[in-house]
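Quick illustration for those who missed Monday's session on complexes.
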Amino acid sequence: MTDKSANAMWGGRFAASPAEIMEEINASITFDKALAPQDIRGSKAHAAMLGETGIIAKGDAREILRGLDQIASEIADGSFTFSRALEDVHMNVESRLKDLIGAAAGRLHTARSRNDQVATDFRLFVRDATDGIIAGIGALQAALVAKAEAHATTVMPGFTHLQPAQPVTFGHHLLAYVEMLGRDRGRFVDARRRLNECPLGSAALAGTSFPIDRAKTAEVLGFDRPMANSIDGVADRDFALEVLAAASIAAVHLSRLAEEIVIWMTPQFGFIRLSDRFTTGSSIMPQKRNPDAAELVRAKVGRIAAAFHNLLIVMKGLPLAYSKDMQEDKEATFDAVASLRLALAAMAGMIADLEPVRDAMRAAAGRGYSTATDLADWLVRELKMPFREAHHVTGAIVKAAEDRGLELENVPIEVMQEVEPRITSGIYSVLSVENSVKSRKSYGGTSPQNVAKMARAWARRLEKEAAGR
Ligand code: ARG
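Prediction with arginine bound:
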């Protein structure tokens, strides 16, 4: 077969030469240029250490640091040209360093490999992203807590199976998300603690014969310590997996709140109003107000959970130490953390913006015999009835109410007494939704008193967390 017919067989755009195909599959610069700030931070720490330990001349180290600073500003102002022929961010930076400072640039890579370099860069990136996510979670929690405090007494139906179950307060419902996000935050904080060890100095995989100071570079880069095993240092990406797992769970939480916003906004529910800052109109139906931001937050979990699976599957079965497969750790991770940060910000904006329609929530809270459990509890408390029997009696009263088209609080006393003669008019005190929520004072329950207290406690805790205490 001639070369020509081989090319014809590959067809299409891959009528390109093998060299071009190799460059396209091998290069990562189109996406790993996002690691440039971390790459320069890592290189500066390494160069300074090489100078301090006398592995390279102090003058060369100074030149390298100066050059790296200039590259950082070229990248920041957009004047830096990235080249695909130079494969990745590491080689792009090093090549530019050579243009800028000449031969001394060649000494930067002493006692280092791209394997520990990229492991360090990516860890720094994931750590920075984690810090951003933790802050984003805190901001969303603060928005929820403020709204919860304002609506500690606002009643709404609580649902199970999306059927009206028992009245709750809107504040209590919002604080449920604050708790979930608190655990999300904990997962990111844990992951950050584990990931904060420095792979730099692992070199290709075996360490180096140069007298490097790994404790020093680890410290300069804000890591707690150097990683203890050079093979592990270059070979694992579990730190990113942990963050992606935490991100997936957080995104699931956000999707549930987003879905509730979508439901609450329908005219059928009409529980909340969201301003046009977070909604859009329709190009054809003038009456429409669509909760696009909530829908998009609901959808983001798709790409975030996919990123987690993507990296899990890339890592599965990889022999130690580095394999080029691991270059595929980046794009999905970059996308996932950016998506989560955006979703958190959008959700915080929506929560601050939304206003409950109290009357609609109150009316809905009273429908569907939502205080039936309160009625049963009254029978247990006042008539010392076993709960199972009270459940049965209540069922008969609900049936009688249904037959007459009445809500429980409007069922005449005679009707109730037909079912259970010992019932007195004292029962009406538990049948209103306000009294129902007020009575749920058990720890963690929905009473306005509990909600106001919890909201204040959370506000104090969030202040401390935001101040890093
Ligand atoms: N671009 C590579 C990556 O992202 C850098 C490490 C390359 N190492 C190697 N031995 N080829 O994984």
